[in-house]
């Protein structure tokens, strides 16, 4: 069994409640979405088919027990589901960063989901797969709203309220697009919202720069 892979690397987790932790990343190639602010367009094409065994060998070399499976859209490759289960079998703590278009139904229950909910400014809000919200688990899963304009904050508030997300997830991440001009306004909006959310800045971009690959 194999997967089409863009890159495998060891770094610091830059986002979510796990930010700052050492983490290995397995970045899969391909995504059916086209978010206008996408920062990983280099994953859309190309990549290399790599066998499970070669991926596991690389992860063992890194020696880090936290692994994130990301993309692109990692769940768009059907071979990823047994791969995730095998990671869990081998004792890894597994995070799945998904864009929210593909169903999470077949993801191993031992893995944690970080689910994007696409806001209007992404251009892809119509493609959110809403049944994914019903599968979220309070003890381990997180949702992320990427914010490009203040209007996205309003959308996020509506969705949090409508789906009672504060009761259903471990963390609600509000993630302004990196380099956005009105970051202070968004931070103020979040602080005034009264919601138990977390401002999610992409730590790795502050450390290595926005265009660095493999970090
Ligand atoms: S889902 Fe993720 S990888 Fe796909 S286009 Fe959107 S931001 Fe890019």
Proportion of helical residues: 25-40%
Number of helices: 6
Structural class: alpha/beta
Strand order of the largest sheet: 3-1-2-4-5-6-7-8-9
Q: N- to C-terminal separation? A: 26 Å
As residue ranges, the low-confidence spans are none
Describe this structure in words.
With 215 residues, the chain is of the alpha/beta class. It has 6 helices and 9 strands. Strand 6 (112-116), helix 3 (131-134) and strand 7 (142-147) form a beta-alpha-beta unit. The chain is globular. The model has no long low-confidence stretch (mean pLDDT 97).
Topology:
Blueprint: E1 2-12, E2 22-28, E3 48-51, H1 52-62, E4 66-70, H2 80-89, E5 93-98, E6 112-116, H3 131-134, E7 142-147, H4 150-162, E8 171-176, H5 183-193, E9 198-199, H6 203-208
Parallel strand pairs: 2-4, 4-5, 5-6, 6-7, 7-8, 8-9
Antiparallel strand pairs: 1-2, 1-3
Q: TL;DR?
A:
The protein is an alpha/beta fold. It has helices at residues 52-62, 80-89, 131-134, 150-162, 183-193, 203-208; strands spanning 2-12, 22-28, 48-51, 66-70, 93-98, 112-116, 142-147, 171-176, 198-199.
Task: Jot down its keywords.
alpha/beta, globular, binds iron/sulfur cluster
């Amino acid at each position: 069994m194999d997967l089409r892979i863009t890159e495998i690397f060891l770094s610091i987790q830059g986002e979510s409640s796990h930010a700052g932790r050492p983490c290995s990343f397995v970045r899969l190639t391909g995504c059916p979405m086209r978010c206008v602010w996408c920062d990983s367009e280099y994953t859309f094409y190309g990549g290399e088919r790599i066998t499970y065994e070669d991926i596991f060998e690389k992860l063992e070399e890194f020696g880090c027990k936290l692994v994130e499976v990301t993309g692109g859209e990692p769940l768009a490759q059907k071979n990823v589901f047994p791969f995730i289960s095998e990671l869990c079998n081998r004792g890894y703590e597994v995070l799945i960063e998904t864009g929210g278009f593909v169903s999470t139904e077949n993801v191993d229950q031992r893995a944690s989901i970080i689910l994007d909910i696409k806001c209007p400014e992404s251009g892809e809000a119509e493609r959110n797969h809403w049944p994914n919200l019903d599968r979220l688990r309070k003890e381990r899963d997180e949702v992320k709203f990427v914010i490009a304009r203040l209007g996205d904050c309003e959308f996020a508030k509506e969705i949090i309220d409508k789906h009672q997300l504060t009761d259903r997830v471990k963390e609600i991440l509000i993630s302004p697009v990196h380099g956005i001009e009105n970051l202070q306004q968004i931070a103020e909006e979040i602080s005034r919202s009264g919601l138990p959310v977390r401002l999610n800045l992409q730590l790795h971009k502050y450390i290595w720069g926005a265009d660095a690959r493999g970090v």
